[in-house]
Specification:
mainly alpha
Length: 70
């Protein structure tokens, strides 16, 4: 089993990466909604982007809970 210090470092690394990816995804989604880019023009890509954003958010929440339990 991992030590709590090592688990905390892992949670920080995962959380930081997920925040970074989430900011990029939110920015892309906002630009798509404003019509600046046409990456989310079809409904299939829009739903895929929403699911990916939801998964990143849930994983970020899990890493935050891991840090809180530390």
């Amino acid at each position: 089993m991992m030590s709590s210090n090592r688990l905390g470092r892992l949670a920080v690394a995962i959380g930081g990466f997920l925040i970074f990816v989430g900011v990029i995804m939110i920015g892309t989604f906002a630009l798509g909604l404003l019509g600046v880019i046409d990456a989310l023009e079809s409904a299939g890509y829009r739903i895929l982007a929403l699911w990916a954003l939801l998964i990143v958010g849930v994983l970020d929440l899990v890493s935050g809970v891991m840090l809180r339990r530390e």
